[in-house]
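agent> step 3/5: call structure_predict on target 'Two component system response regulator' (Desulfonema magnum).
agent> reason: downstream docking stage needs a structural representation; sequence fetched in step 2, passing through unchanged.
tool.input:
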Amino acid sequence: MKRILIIDDEYQVRSMLRMMLEHAGYEVEDAPDGEIGIKLYRKSPTDLVITDILMPKKEGIETIMEIRRDFPNARIIAISCGGRLKTPDIFLSMAERFGAARVFAKPLDKNKLLDAVRELAGA
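tool.output (status=ok):
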């Protein structure tokens, strides 16, 4: 069974993604910030990481950079609502430059996200 790590400080987002991905047949782990997410990934790398960009402690760009530095073949999807700016494009563009394979603005299009998960992690 393919494994996915969700890193997002919003419990509702983590919960929604967990339910969607488990229903699609994936095993899911989650973390409320990049610091904990990286610890989980180092302990047991997953087939795919889905990370928010704006989070406390260690934000998503740092998380992506560290994972890609230490695990060059890691597959990562970045998600963001843009925070106070309400325009996630800048953050998502940066995430792509630092190694995210796909990026999605919140609110998420669940079908498009699931298609990207299938493509990157496998079914």
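agent> step 4/5: record observation. The chain has one domain: 3-121.
agent> proceeding.
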